[in-house]
Design goal:
By secondary structure, the chain is of the alpha+beta class. It has a single domain, classed as Orthogonal Bundle (Arc Repressor Mutant, subunit A). The chain has 6 helices and 3 strands. Strands 1-3-2 form a 3-stranded antiparallel sheet. Strand 2 and strand 3 form a beta hairpin. The longest helix is centred in the C-terminal third of the chain and has 23 residues. It is elongated.
């Protein structure tokens, strides 16, 4: 028996499906690379949260992080790895399949909640 769309949602890759990491990966999928401050602004995360999520994504092999100095200041650049680009593209394809499956889901299979 095929998994329901709801079971499919529950089995999504948490490394990507986490809202903060999804925002980071989605932003990076739209560009070649981004610096830490740009990601900080567009995600609305704190420096500590962004740093923590980037570390987890790097450990998972989804992003590559480069640190360099520009005018004696540290600049952190982040880009999707090839595996990261494939993972985020696969994630959005899976989400579209789940959305389509949920739209076709027969309402008689759902158990109504008593009022």
């Amino acid at each position: 028996m095929d998994a329901t769309p709801f079971e499919q949602l529950a089995s999504l890759d948490r490394r990507i499906h986490d809202p903060a990491r999804l925002a980071i990966l989605t932003a990076l999928s739209a560009c070649e690379r981004a610096d830490f401050l740009f990601l900080l602004r567009i995600t609305g995360l704190t420096k500590g949260n962004l740093s923590s999520h980037l570390s987890k994504l790097e450990e998972a092999g989804l992003v590559e992080i480069e640190k360099r100095f520009v005018e004696k200041k540290t600049q952190t650049l982040v880009r999707l790895s090839d595996a990261g680009r494939q993972s985020i593209e696969g994630y959005w394809q899976e989400m579209e399949q789940i959305r389509e499956s949920a739209a076709r889901w027969p309402s008689q299979n759902l158990v109504p909640v008593p009022s």
